[in-house]
Amino acid sequence: MNLPLLEKYNVSVPRYTSYPTVPAWQTENWSPEQWMARMEKRFSPQQGMSLYIHLPYCEQLCTYCGCNKHITKNHLLEDPYIDAVLQEWEKYRRYMSQAPLISEIHLGGGTPTFFRPAALERLIQGLMRHSRLSPSYSLSFEAHPQSTSLEHLRVLREVGFNRISLGVQDFDPQIMKTINRRQTEAQVRTVTQHARKLGYRSINYDLIYGLPGQTSYHIDYNLRRVEELRPERIAFYSYAHVPGIKPSQRAYSEADLPQGSEKRALYQQGRAGFEALGYATIAMDHFATPEDDLARSFRQQKLHRNFMGYTPHYTELAIGLGASAISDSWDAYAQNEKTTYGYLKAIQQEALPPGRKGHLLSEEDQRIRRRILSLMCHYEADWFDRPQDLHPALQKRLKALEEDGLLRLFPRQIKVTPTGRDFIRNIAAALDEPLHRKHFNQPTFSQAV
Fold this sequence. Notes:
- The chain has two domains: 21-321, pyruvate-formate lyase- activating enzyme; 362-439, Arc Repressor Mutant, subunit A (Orthogonal Bundle), CATH 1.10.10.920.
- Helices cover 37% and strands 21% of the residues.
- It contains 15 helices and 19 strands.
- Helix 4 runs parallel beside helix 5, helix 8 runs parallel beside helix 9 (260-276) and helix 12 (363-378) packs antiparallel against helix 14.
- The N and C termini lie close together (11 Å).
- The model has no long low-confidence stretch (mean pLDDT 92).
């Protein structure tokens, strides 16, 4: 890693899982009625759609976590929550002219395997009762190694799930203790082995670099476990330390964290190790075996990115169900009530889905979104539709990035260089016009590198 570039570009910028980013939404111009009108217009029974279901409950607090969660050991909450999600789906179904075609379902959290297998089975059967599965469907869930039982895996496999994402984070027990995540290496191995025997065709490991106390030794140990267990995919995320937004992260301080060049060295060690094991680097922070769908879609330039992360399935309509879940019709976003109490109350009291805020994308938003999406998935973006958008201020920002060797600038296109791939979020930020017109407080976004 070039240290001067690292020092220059390691600033607070969005991750661009969406565009515009949530802090930039213009919520005052949005209403649930407008959202439903745009969703209904976008819906097509011939085109596949994605479903994200947020299952927020966790039995314990993992202090590193930035997700929306509800900490409880009360499992009597399971059935009322499943009932509410199915009621929300029914509210959407009333606006769909025919049975929807489902390309993708993802159960996220929280801890989806907080719910007993029978509750998850009832959820999926309810969602699919008046729906159709695309021939190339992908059904996946986030699995906590400690709470994912053989029965969870069996029941979800029987209702069609073919992918699993294991929240490993790190294999070292001391780091797990520091971030209050109670799981063992043996549990990761057991869930992996059971999933393979049951026929799950893709297993993902979430791993994090930059955790408190993490060193080169830990990355090397994680690589050896990956070599042994051979997950098809790896998401190698940078730990985002934002204690101003997530107070649980105050369990440790910046002094406990690898930072700057030390942190980046951990990523480079991990990336080199994954590549040496035969994994292909996929866009930003993902790796996959060459035969996996994610690697194949990347090679074919069909990779897509949405609120669920990178996916080989491109769908213009993605419906989020559950507390805090975000829906996307390409030209509009809607986010549900964030708290479980607020969500459950809204389901009972309101005729429309419980969206509480959102954003209607302007033509400018959609043009920028298309370019940033192309950049984040394929390392290039163009202006073939509107070359006048490459205005002097943007040209100046891009020229500075070109001078630092991060991209090559053509009259109607930019292409990211190998060096620039480490700074892809910074390059995306250069295209983000509203970001340069509006001031955000530094803690709003995590560090770029």
